[in-house]
Amino acid sequence: MDPLDIMMNLDKVIPYYQPVVSADTRQVIGYEVKAYYKDDEGEKQRLDWFFKDDSIPQDFQLEANSKIQEKALDDFLKTDPSLSLFLNYDARLLYEDDGETLLNLLHTYQDKGLALHRIVIELKEELITEEMNSLRQLFKYMQTLGIQIALDDVGKTNGNLGRLVEFEPNIVKINVGFLKENKLPQLYQDVHYSISMLARKIGATLLFKGVSTYNQFNYAWRNGGRYYQGNYLLPSQPHFAELDACKEKMERDFQLFVNFETKKMTAQLELTNRINKQFGATLQTIKPNAPYDEIIITVGKECTPFAFRVYICNDEGIQLSSNAEKNKEGQWELYYEGRHKNWSWRPYFFENIVRMNVEKKGILSDLYTDIDRDEQIRTYSYPIANNRYIFIDIPYNYLYEQEGLL
Ligand code: CA
To answer: Which residues have a beta carbon within 5 Å of ligand 1, which is an ion?
Structure first.
């Protein structure tokens, strides 16, 4: 389609509304406006390309965008006052005219009774460049008017998370649409985990969009999403969806999520208890003054069903023993080069040391990728003596065979 055709037929540009639902109320809390073009035959197509294409004059894009937003705002004025309207805006356009077009439009509707706190302005994170620093003041100003700012597609590119801190958006949007069913989302999960921690620190709400399957919904829920969008929940429509339109589905799924997590937690606790018991028995047979390498070989052999590597560290993270490792034939061997390595830089290291000291019992780590084996493992650690901690790495295939440990 020719961009000029769009400009000549702005009356055929219409808003669609994609519902945003919230975990806490299980209700629709707002709608994101999407631009569609409806031709004479009634065929509809999305107009994303029109707003993404750099070769289209910005004046055209601004005009078409305002047109669609006017139509949406006219509709929106008639809705429940608790609902929000999410308007997409190109950061470059906002930067070009310092928000004038947008603010004029919103003030016009404010005169017609629109409360500005019901408006969320969505900007794509990747389009905000270094030189747009003045946007920061504009965002702050808009936020003092009550307008909410959402950063869209956060974490999509190698974006810098510092921008979240810099711009302090009210809402952070993450796309989960690219997570395929059978791919392990562990790595994304770590990125999304950092975003979610950062969002929590700056007091922003996480919104997961592109939710088109049960698994993606589950992923979003597990990663701290409060708001969700996507066809799995509710599709974009030319009208506003009912508030309770997917309440039943959400409640049913949340129930399943909780059951599953409970099972997982139980499996982890059971494994910890099993290892504790096995390990406790092994510990009885070890002489307290035995050399470290003798201890790790003994422990490795005793724990051979679920261990592939054993070593001992002190509370500063210095490895005191070699590595005892199980070879392909199932024999345990010593690798001396592990000695004196410093593991204190590893995430959770000190937290776990302190926990072991306080709780005086073994701890099972989260799932993480072992650098040498390039597979996901867990580590069991136990305080064997004053300032001496033993670490037992559990391989993927063992975890895989037990239900609920991955
Ligand atoms: Ca958007």
So the answer is: 88, 122, 152
- For residue 8, how far is its CA from the centre of ligand 1 (angstroms)? 25
Alpha-carbon distance values, 94 to 65, 130, 330 (Å) = 12, 15, 64
H/E stretch holding 106 reads helix 100-111
φ and ψ at residue 285, rounded to 5 degrees: -85, -5
Amino acid at 309: R
Ligand 1 center–CA 149 separation, angstroms: 12
CA distances from 163 to 4, 103, 167, 193 (A): 36, 23, 6, 16
Q: Say how far apart CA 243 and CA 80 lie, in whole Å.
A: 9
Asked if 214 and 181 count as a contact pair (C-beta separation under 8 A), the reply is no
List C-alpha distances in Å: 11 to 3, 64, 70, 263, 383: 14, 10, 11, 54, 72
Helix, strand or coil, per DSSP, at residue 102: helix
Q: How confident is the model at residue 69 (pLDDT cuts 50, 70, 90)?
A: very high
Residue 313 forms beta bridges with which residues?
319, 389
Q: How far is the CA of 127 from the centre of ligand 1 (A)?
A: 12
Q: How far apart are the first and last CA of the chain?
A: 48
CA of 122 to the centre of ligand 1 (A): 6
Which phi and psi (to 5°) does residue 393 adopt?
-85, 130
Express as a percent the part of the chain with pLDDT over 70.
Answer: 97
Mean pLDDT of 325-340: 94
**d(C-alpha 244, C-alpha 260), whole Å:** 25
Does pTM top 0.70 for this prediction?
A: yes
CA gap 9, 31 in Å, rounded: 25
Comparing 345 with 109, the larger pLDDT belongs to: 109
Comparing CA positions, the residue from 35, 25, 16 lying closest to residue 89 is: 35
